[in-house]
Structures are given as C-alpha cells and as structure tokens.
Write a structure and sequence with these properties.
By secondary structure, this protein is α+β, with helices and mostly antiparallel strands. About 55% of the residues lie in helices and about 15% in strands. A three-stranded antiparallel sheet has the order 4-3-5. Strands 7-6-8 form a three-stranded antiparallel sheet. A two-stranded antiparallel ribbon has the order 1-2. A hairpin with a 4-residue loop joins strand 3 and strand 4. The relative contact order is 0.08. InterPro entries: TRIM45/56/19-like.
C-alpha cells in the first residue's frame, strides 16, 4: 500500500526541483536521487558516490535517479523492488513474510505467530500488498481522471477570463467613445 503513496510523493518531490535535505551531506541541496536503503535523498555528489563506491555497493539496487522518475520509467513494481524487504517488527534480523491485521498490519515473522500474535488475524504480506495495491491503483486512476478534468477546467477558466477581459476592454472603449461624442455635442451646444 505504501509503495504507491511513496511513488507519488517521490515523483512529486523529484519533479518539484526544490532543494531537499541530502542524506550524505545533511544539507539542503538540489537532489538527483533517492536511496531506499538509506531512506534519504541524495545530491549529485552523493548519488555518484552511492553508485560507484564499494562501501555502498549493496545500495545500488535500492537507488532511483531523478531522470528515471521524471521520465516515469519507474513503475510501481520497479519501486517495490527498490525497497528493502520489510523486517519483522519484533525480530529486526528476520524478514517479514506475514503481517498482523489485528495490529494495524504490523510486519511480523513466523516466530511471532507462536508468540505475541498467536490467534490474531495474520495475512501473508504479498497477498495483502497485492490487494491494497489494486485498490490504490484504482484510486490513482480516478485521481488521474480528475486531474485531466481539473486541467480542462483550468484551461476553460483561462479562456473565460481572457474573453471577459476582452469584453470589458471593448465595453470600456465604446463607453469612452460614447462619452467623448456626448461631451463634444454638449460643448457644441453650449457654444451656440
């Protein structure tokens, strides 16, 4: 579920061209990538370091570049693969394969099903994720539909505003011309 939200936020942030806090420098800079392993934005220098350094070699598959997001080459599935596998809330060394719906979809491991989460509502992470992904994709499609309608309304409003300004300008000119003619006639009558 969070992947689609993160995708939209990431796309908005990276397309926004506003400076962000660089994870490497801890300064607000223009960013060129995002690392899901570090959970942070990267400036150009840190991004270069991330993809070339042996220290962050394991981060490469979890890093996405601005141009990939801007050109929409990063799909939901690609984004999901960039993220590190979720870890168990209790046993952080174990990968979470399940989630406890009773505990607000908390990621858990198999060992937890015999402990604190015994007899609770347990689901496989991928099944729940796929279900939520479908729902969010439908909602996202609706949002894109509304976005198109809003953009069309904006264009229509701009045209109406332009037409209204032109009509006001024409009316002002005709009123000024009428006033000038009336003023001229009045002066001519007063001179006789």
């Amino acid at each position: 579920m969070i992947n689609i939200i993160e995708y939209i936020q990431l796309q908005t942030t990276l397309n926004d061209e506003q400076a962000q806090q660089c994870f490497g420098y801890s300064k607000t800079l223009r960013v060129s990538a995002y690392c899901f392993k570090c959970n942070g934005f990267l400036c150009k220098a840190c991004h270069r370091f991330h993809v070339t350094s042996k220290i962050t070699e394991d981060h490469r598959p979890n890093t996405v570049a601005v141009e990939d997001v801007a050109s929409k080459r990063v799909s939901f599935d690609k984004l999901a693969s960039l993220k590190e596998a979720p870890r168990c809330y209790t046993h952080s060394e174990k990968v979470s394969e399940l989630c406890c719906k009773t505990c607000s979809n908390m990621p858990i491991c198999v060992a937890c099903t015999y402990g604190n989460h015994k007899s609770q509502d347990i689901y496989e992470v991928t099944a729940l994720a796929n279900e939520n992904r479908q729902k969010l994709e439908q909602k996202l499609a609706e949002v894109y539909t509304f976005e198109g309608g809003i953009l069309q309304m904006s264009d229509k409003l701009d045209k109406i505003k332009s037409d209204l300004n032109a009509a006001v300008s024409d009316k002002l000119k005709s009123t000024q011309m009428h006033y000038s003619r009336m003023e001229k006639r009045t002066r001519e009558k007063l001179q006789f």
